[in-house]
Design brief:
Layout: H1 3-13, H2 18-58, H3 62-80, H4 89-111, H5 121-133, H6 138-159, H7 162-208, E1 211-218, E2 223-227, E3 236-240, H8 243-254, H9 260-266, H10 269-275, E4 281-287, E5 293-303, E6 309-320, H11 322-335
Antiparallel strand pairs: 1-2, 1-6, 2-3, 4-5, 5-6
Length: about 325
């Protein structure tokens, strides 16, 4: 691939192709909105506290009014993040940039206008973490932070002594460049992870039509959720707070007598963590009560970084029904 094309993909799509980025985009929007809900709750509580303090100490001044307006806007965005707009690409982008701009401008205000007799440590801390807390495309995100940096430098020059201004200028540029580079690496890992999740969901969605049971099991808290299918159209069809007993009941009620012993061992959640250490998949074929053959599968979807599974998906797939087996038995007899 030519260098200029690689550079373009790196700046616009973090190294992915346009089609790959579009495949991962729904995951990006979902994750950004999840984080924004948390950040906006924190922002509403924090700025509300500042508003109350400012109202008591200063009365209804300009800064008190700004605090009140900020609380109202963040509360409105928080409500919208729980509405149907939450999956809208344009809304997600606007709220993303609004929150980061609000966060950065607030830190500029605190680091220049209200603290002009010291270096701006709050702004440095803020601009260093912005590339990590929300995902933005490389080039637009870089330009956005660069504009904010320029605003900070101008205000620092206007409000501070030459000594503090020089300190702010050098520190802010160094932190900006380092955080942009490190944030780019983290962003690339994130978007590749979302692309992988998107591809896995597509494959699982293709498979789900052949599966009779789709169960996500949390081994840590012994709970499970049953789904109708994989992918974007999946629906919850049942939950259970005791997955261990649920699996035991499944074996006793569905497995043919001669297959009970090995299926009890296979579906034993008490030993599953050790059996699936450093493994991704466990498979077991069994005969069920209706004399059909089925395939039970455990697939690890989350581990503890030491090789032990934390969450698994349990599936049952019909691999040969009773009619087929009877026909096969008849054919074998004819051959004999």
């Amino acid at each position: 691939m030519p260098f200029l094309k690689k550079l373009k993909l790196a700046l616009i799509y973090d190294g992915l192709t346009k089609s790959e980025y579009q495949a991962a985009e729904s995951y990006i929007i979902k994750e950004n909105n999840r984080r924004l809900r948390i950040y906006n709750i924190i922002a509403v509580v924090f700025v509300m506290a500042l508003f109350v303090y400012s109202l008591i100490v200063r009365g209804f001044t300009l800064i008190t009014t700004i605090y009140l307006g900020s609380v109202m806007v963040n509360a409105l965005i928080l409500c919208l993040l729980y509405s149907k707009l939450q999956n809208n690409k344009i809304f997600s982008t606007i709220t993303n940039y609004f929150f980061t701009t609000f966060f950065l401008l607030f830190s500029i205000y605190s680091g220049t206008i209200t603290s002009n007799g010291m270096p701006a440590t709050m702004f440095l801390a803020t601009i260093s973490i912005i590339p990590y807390i929300l995902y933005t495309k490389a080039l637009p995100g870089f330009i956005h932070r660069l504009i904010i940096l320029c605003i900070f430098i101008v205000l620092s020059y206007k409000t501070k002594s030459a000594e503090y201004f020089r300190t702010d200028l050098i520190n802010s540029i160094v932190v900006f460049l380092l955080s942009s580079f490190a944030g780019g690496r983290i962003r690339k890992l994130q978007v590749n992870g979302w692309l992988l999740a998107s591809n896995q969901d597509k494959e699982l969605e293709k498979m789900s039509g052949m599966l009779e049971v789709i169960r996500i099991i949390d081994l840590a808290d012994n709970s499970s959720i049953d789904y109708s299918s994989f992918g974007s159209e999946k629906k919850v069809v049942g939950t259970n707070s005791n997955a261990l007993k649920q699996m035991e009941a499944f074996v006793e009620n569905n497995v043919e007598e001669n297959n009970l012993v090995h299926m009890r061992q296979f579906c034993d959640l008490a030993t599953l963590e050790d059996r699936m250490f450093s493994q991704k998949v466990l498979i077991c074929d069994f005969a069920s009560n209706d004399v059909a053959w089925r395939r039970a599968t455990f697939v690890v979807i989350e581990d503890d970084n030491k090789g032990f599974p934390k969450k698994v998906v349990f599936t049952i797939q019909l691999i040969a029904d009773a009619f087929y087996l009877n026909m096969l038995d008849f054919d074998l007899k004819q051959i004999k």
